[in-house]
Write a structure and sequence with these properties.
It is a single chain. The chain is α+β, with helices and mostly antiparallel strands. The chain contains 3 helices and 11 strands; from the N terminus they run αβββαββββαββββ. Strands 3, 4, 6, 7 and 8 form a 5-stranded antiparallel β-sheet that branches. It has a 4-stranded mixed β-sheet with strand order 1-5-2-9, with no helix packed on it. The longest helix has 18 residues.
């Protein structure tokens, strides 16, 4: 009788394991601990629509105002303003989730770039860019509302769809098959 009960318990445990939800994506970047429960405030960017898995992903955090958005990081730091950068490699497969901590709850602007050639300088013709907001980037400078993220005490999760140059006249847009 004990043997039957043990066998039934083992079968039940195996069935539960097979029906359990898939494991969450591995959180990448040097700030990954900030995206764990109780670790915030932080932003977790789910990066989608990448052209390939070459190079690295970079997240940059800016003040959420028109004057400071995309301003030179050295200038922002010298002025005592918010700026943070996180680099990470790209896994060969699976989801790409990158964490960046923020100094305190508030409103920030987030830029994500795909540095495909690993040269740490944005290559207009090869690299990609993305923001948490919707819409094509086109040929103009990104607008602040495309990049704004409101962060509370915990982790603000956002999907960032990467965009790449689709042609000189078309500018940056998501890839058609993504």
């Amino acid at each position: 009788m004990k043997r039957v009960a043990f066998t039934l318990a083992a079968v039940a445990a195996a069935a539960a394991a097979m029906t359990a939800a898939p494991a969450a994506a591995q959180v990448l970047g040097s700030d990954e601990a900030a995206c764990r429960p109780g670790g915030g405030p932080a932003i977790l960017a789910q990066v989608v629509g990448m052209k390939d898995r070459q190079g690295r992903i970079k997240l940059e955090l800016y003040p959420a105002d028109d004057e400071d958005f995309l301003k030179d990081d050295n200038v922002l730091v010298a002025q005592g303003k918010t700026f943070r950068r996180v680099w990470t490699g790209i896994p060969a497969s699976g989801p790409v989730a990158v964490c960046i901590r923020v100094p305190r709850p508030g409103r920030y602007a987030l830029l994500v770039t795909h540095d495909r050639d690993g040269k740490n300088k944005f290559n207009f013709f090869k690299d990609g860019a993305g923001f948490p907001g919707s819409g094509k980037l086109g040929m103009s400078r990104p607008k602040l509302p495309q990049a704004v993220v409101d962060v509370g005490e915990g982790t603000a999760e956002r999907v960032v769809r990467m965009q790449y140059l689709r042609g000189i006249m078309s500018g940056f847009a998501p890839l058609k098959d993504n």
